[in-house]
Amino acid sequence: MRGLKGRDRVIFLVAVMIFVLVLVAEGAGECGKTPIGSAAASLSPCLSAVSNVKAKVPLACCSRVGALLRTTPKCLCAVLLSPLAKQAKINVATAITIPKRCNINNRPAGKKCGKYTLP
Q: What residues does the Bifunctional inhibitor/plant lipid transfer protein/seed storage helical domain cover (predicted)?
């Protein structure tokens, strides 16, 4: 980069930035190639269970959470800690109990998710 001057240097930096953005856009995140918004939307059957820890968790919610934990286990945490969840006023402390309430055997019990621990 020392040999690059002026316009060539700017073009080089722009090319590097575009390369990095493409890598990020192609799914380097916790949800693989699935955008976090899509992952969150797939969990919409869980909305009735995220505000009350004693509420019955719908079967569709359990199926989707189970599938998510099998394919991309870190994605659930990423969704729960995302700005989307915050904007939707999701109670993370309650939502994080859903895998246990669904009796999902392969849940990552004991794993940290922000300041929360999966039961």
A: 31-113
